[in-house]
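pipeline stage [seq->struct] | target=Spon1 protein | organism=Symbiodinium necroappetens | residues=286
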Amino acid sequence: MLLLTVTLPSARAESFSLDQGSTVGDLKNLAQQTFQLGFLRLVTAEGRRLDDPQESVQNAGLQTGDQVTALVLQPQLTGTRISFDALGGAFALWFRGGDEVITWGDPHTGGDSSAVQSQLKGVQQLQATSSAFAAILADGSVVSWGNPASGGDSSAVQSQLKGVQQLQATDCAFAAILADGSVVSWGTPGDGGDSSAVQSQLNGVQQLQTTYRAFAAILADGSVVSWGDPDLGGDSSAVQSQLKGVQQLQGNFSAFAAILADGSVVSWGSPESGGDSSEVQSQLKG
C-alpha cells in the first residue's frame, strides 16, 4: 500500500492509502470525493503536473509519504450558435491553464473537438463564433475547430498565430491580437475574416470589439480601425476624423460607440442600432 497526502492551497490535507496498482485518476477521484470539489489538478512537490489519469502512481514517481498539492480548477462554459432563428450549436467546458476541453452538441458547429484534443494544452482563453471555437494556448499559439467557414480552420494563418494575447469573434470570423500589437484574422471575409485592407494600420492594437459582422480596434494612439461588414460598423470612415483619444469602445449587433478623452461619444454603423447618435449628441458630453 502507498500512503499519500493531498493538500489544498487552503492547507487542508487528507491522507489516502492506495494499492500499488492504483492510478493518478484513482487518487484524483478520492481527493474530489473527500474534498467535495469537482475539478482538481494534482501537482507533485517538485512541481510536476499529474495530468494522465491512466498513469500508475508508481510510474508517476510517487512513494509512501509523498505530498501532492491539489489545485482547484474553475470551469468555464463557452457556446456556439448557428443563428438566432436556427437550431444547432455546441458547448465547450474548459479551465484556464487546463489541458482538456470537453465539447458536446452539433459536431458541425464545434461539438466534436476530438481532432484537436491532443493539441489543447494550457488553454488560456476560449472564444466562439456562431459555429466554431478557437483557443489560445499557454505557448501563445491558437487551435481552432468547428465549421471551417466560420473560423474553425485557421491553417491559412497558423504560422502567424504566435504570441497571441487576445481573441475576439464575430458571427463567422476570429481576430487575434499578437504580442507586437498586430492583428491576425480568419474566417468569412465579409464578417471580418479578411483584414488585409487595413492590415498596415493595425499596429499597437490595445483592444478589439465586435458587432455581429465587424471588428473595431483601439490603437495605442487612441485612434480606431474597423473592418468587416460596412453596414454593421466595419466602415468608420464617416467619423474617422473624430475618433481621436478613444478611451472605451463598445459594439452591439450592428453599431459601435466610442468614448473620447473629453467625455464625448462618437458612434457609427447601423442607425437603427445606435450608429447615429446625432439626436442626443448635445447630451453626450463628459
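stage status: PASS
auto-comment: Residues 263 and 286 are 4 Å apart (CA to CA). The two ends are 70 Å apart (CA to CA).
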